[in-house]
TrEMBL record:
Name of the featured protein: tRNA N6-adenosine threonylcarbamoyltransferase
Catalyses which reaction(s): L-threonylcarbamoyladenylate + adenosine(37) in tRNA = N(6)-L-threonylcarbamoyladenosine(37) in tRNA + AMP + H(+)
PROSITE patterns cross-referenced by the UniProt entry: GLYCOPROTEASE
Keywords (A to Z) from UniProt: Acyltransferase, Cytoplasm, Iron, Metal-binding, Transferase, tRNA processing
Cofactors, names only: Fe(2+)
GO MF annotation terms: iron ion binding; tRNA N(6)-L-threonylcarbamoyladenine synthase activity
Transmembrane spans: none
UniProt remark on cofactor binding: Binds 1 Fe(2+) ion per subunit.
The enzyme's E.C. designation: 2.3.1.234
Record-annotated Gcp-like domain positions: 29-310
Encoding gene (name): tsaD
GO biological process: tRNA threonylcarbamoyladenosine modification
Organism: Acidihalobacter prosperus
Family note: Belongs to the KAE1 / TsaD family.
Length: 338
């Protein structure tokens, strides 16, 4: 690790959250701030990339000043920023600011993979998992199973061939007339649904393999909604059937991945990992098969600066340093990290 590089500033701007945090190698997470753009994009029913980029420009430096003031430091010992994947304009804001601050302060910088940040987020908890483990990364943009043997050593086991689980949640929520962002709203509506009224398919669970496919569930939900007409109660029943199908599918695939790899630990991260029904099902599955399952706290399931600060700290500790180039990668395979 770079001499004296104890406190790392993390910057997250991959989509519509502006996250800033400071991770200390001795004290843990010592400061964090998060600004969400949900209200800005809600009127459009989804994230508008140009608006997201402009809002990051407005919010980022004031948040950096706040976390530095909180810890009473003029500058950190290193800077980590999300370099990809994500929206190119949003990424470039964080990468430009992060690399420039590091240059001005004369400290090392590192570009962090957004998904590695999510994958390592459970390490911020007191009860952190040891390596190796199977990881389920499940969010609006990604659904994948990964065999993790150490930081940077990731083998892809399976991924979604179309919509990610979170994307399917949001699209189905829109069909149900729920406001953006729809995943949490759908889960809330599902609590009032009858689990016995409809049964949706569990896609790709009747064949070998660890890949996913969720776009068909959206179509199934649309056809079901059209069949029930103006049945107000039916909306909750459809939401419950959809959520059960996604949760069951994810649980079945996690069990297969654990059996295939022989791992006894499962890490679940990403925005959808905050879903309560998913957590209950995975914990039940883990208990039944003598497996430990780890989740980040809900605040670290969605995009945040803390996970980037921690991932950057681990990378800097391993001796990695970014050169004087600002790199943003809208597409960046996780398996390419080493």
């Amino acid at each position: 690790m770079e001499m004296g590089c104890r406190r790392v500033l993390g910057i997250e701007t991959s989509c519509d959250e502006t996250g800033v945090a400071i991770y200390d190698g001795a004290e843990g997470l010592v400061a964090e701030r998060l600004y969400t753009q949900v209200g800005l994009h809600a009127r459009y029913g989804g994230v508008v990339p140009e608006l997201a980029s402009r809002d990051h420009v407005r919010r980022l430096l004031p948040l950096v000043r706040e976390v530095l003031d909180e810890v009473g430091a003029a500058c950190p010992d290193g800077v980590a920023y999300t370099a990809g994947p994500g929206l190119i304009g949003a990424l470039h804001v964080g990468a430009s600011v992060g690399r420039s601050l590091a240059f001005g302060w004369g400290v090392p910088a590192i570009g962090v993979h957004h998904l590695e940040g999510h994958l390592l987020a459970p390490m911020l908890e007191a009860d952190a998992p040891d390596f190796p483990f199977v990881a389920l990364l499940v969010s609006g943009g990604h659904t994948m199973l990964i065999d993790v043997t150490d930081v940077g050593r990731y083998a892809l086991l399976g991924e979604s061939l179309d919509d990610a689980a979170g994307e399917a949640f949001d699209k189905t929520a829109k069909l149900l007339g729920l406001s953006y962002p729809g995943g949490a709203a759908l889960a809330k509506l599902a609590c009032d649904g009858d689990p016995a009224r409809f049964r949706f398919p569990r896609p790709m669970t009747d064949r070998p393999g660890l890949d996913f496919s969720f776009s068909g569930l959206k179509t199934f939900a649309l056809n079901t909604l059209q069949s029930i007409g103006e049945d107000a109660r039916g909306r909750a029943d459809v939401a419950r059937a959809f959520e059960d199908a996604v949760v069951d599918t994810l649980t079945i695939k996690c069990r297969r991945a654990l059996q295939q790899t022989g791992r006894r630990r499962l890490v679940v991260a990403g925005g959808v990992s905050a879903n309560r029904r998913l957590r209950v099902h995975l914990e039940d599955m883990a208990n039944a098969h003598s497996v430990r399952v780890y989740f980040p706290r809900p605040a670290y399931c969605t995009d945040n600066g803390a996970m980037i600060a921690y991932a950057g700290y681990r990378r800097l500790r391993a001796g990695e340093v970014e050169d004087l180039v600002i790199r943003s990668r809208p597409r960046w395979p996780l398996a390419s990290l080493g």
